[in-house]
Amino acid sequence: MGVCEKKFRLEVPNDLAAIPLIRDFVGNTAKIAGFNERVRVNIELAVEEAARNVILHAFAPGEEGSFNIICEPTSLGIKVIVREMGMPFDLSRVPECDRNGPDEDRTGRTPGICRMKQTMDEVSFHNLGKGGKETHLVKYLDDRAIGSCMTAAELEEAEKTKGAEALPKGSVSFQVRRMELAEAVEVSKCAYAAYHYSYLEYVYYPERIRRLNETGELTSYVAVAPDGEIMGHAAIKGGKEPGVAELSTAFVKPKYRGQGCLNALSEVLIREAKRRGLAGLYVRAITSHPYSQKTALKYGFGECCLFLAVLDPPEFAEIHTGKRERESLVHSFLYLNRPGTFSIYAPPHHTEMILRIYEGLGVHPQAVRDQQDLPYEDSSVRITADPNHTANIEVLQCGRNVVSEVKRHLRDLCISRIEAVYLFLNLCDPLTALMTAEFEKMGFFFAGINPGPSGTDRLVLQFLNNLAVDYSHLQFASNKGQQIAEYVRLHDPYNAEY
To answer: Which residues of 461-497 are buried (b: 16+ CB within 10 A; e: fewer)?
Structure first.
């Protein structure tokens, strides 16, 4: 097991005297991860702030307890988790902070949470129900975005490439192969030419692409012109264990669109996924235009979910979408190994639509009705948020307090200015059929299903935080996609025709 596969754990008492020990532990682990002294000090300070918050606020006055500091060196840097079982924390108390400048409170001091956000690349707070609470702090190794790696001449050439007219279809021959690690910078340039800076963040950092490929978290393939120029890129993301993975990070330079790069890349990646023994692949295609959806359909992917308002408005070189609103994504799935007979517990009022979606994927589960009472045990709920102002609520274990737990987390997320919240429910749990209507009373509405390996299929509901979607702006490449969108629209409480 390599260093980047290990976790280092320290348990400390809820006593400020433990702070020096915490800093030494975190600093030494950051050194193992490859950080220089200057950055290590900043990481130590950020974790110190998180630990102080726990010691001062997570326990009752005079209460003796302990909490854990977990350091995970990763291929990209380090992740530090501060895990505790103290009093519930209200996410609405997390202030909005400016990463680029000080945020001072009334005393003239910068709040600790703001200092964490200014120092670290990612800061997030996770309520795990009976599993306690976690603060996640992520710092990437010192690497540069592609814009700072390019000369003025290269930037000028990239701008020209963005506006270049597409070459005649079929006029360029190319080869599809695994990306060489040294080509990561050219892949970032390709992404810049296709999307400027509006695509997935990590693609603009060549070192991150390289390290993700080294660890297998990303498997990159490129389409290469005869002169060696990178024309396009696509990858398998995740899927180290048998299960499902994402066909992701697909883009082609504007001048090479129409040459068949994306088709050829998709074919190779599907073969790679089958070789790995994955149960399935999924793609999330934007709805600003139907081009990537068409490629997915060509290779047998079936639409199964519509995630509304997921991303900030993207920029597409030479693709004029005519809108500047949050981007919605179509989730499509391809079974590589079709499951045998299996049962689902769909809510009665959505059962017909859910079975139609499964039929489009080529499988036919049995919808079972099983009356069950909520168990006495507490629920287990996982909350995650991302920089796009969206969040996921995953119900890991449905218990007696599941409604109040989801409602509490939803309120906190809305106060924290999260734009859209997605609720994931296990379709193989009989309680999903029982509880869906209760969640819909909160304002959640149907999004679709996310298939997975046996026993892991999920029903997806979504909540928009005072956000209306203009469904006329969404573009779909098939009647099935349009049908799902219409079903979602009819159940959207913000839709005027609801």
So the answer is: bbbbbeeebebeebbbbbebbebbbebbbebbeeeee
Q: Is the pLDDT of residue 101 over 50?
A: no
Q: What angle do CA 77, 83, 86 make, to 5 degrees?
A: 155
Check whether 125 has a pLDDT greater than 70.
yes
Would the pTM count as exceeding 0.70?
Answer: yes
Helix (H, G, I), strand (E, B) or coil at 19: helix
d(CA 53, CA 168): 60
Residue type at 184?
Answer: A
Q: Which amino acid is at 495?
A: N
Other CB atoms within 10 Å distance of the CB of residue 3: 12
- pLDDT above 70 for 162: no
Domains parsed from the chain with CATH numbers: 3-140 (3.30.565.10), 146-335 (3.40.630.30), 343-491 (3.40.630)
pLDDT for position 358: 97
What digits encode the pLDDT tens for the residues 288-326? 888 889 989 999 999 999 999 998 765 444 444 444 589
Short-list 257, 352, 267, CA closest to 301: 267
The single-letter DSSP state of residue 338 is -
Crossing angle for the helix pair 184-195 and 152-162, to the nearest 10 degrees: 50
Phi, psi of 338 (to 5 degrees): -70, 135
Closest of 495, 464, 461 to residue 306, by C-alpha: 461
Tell me: the pLDDT tens digits for 400-447? 899 999 999 999 889 888 899 999 999 999 999 999 999 999 999 999
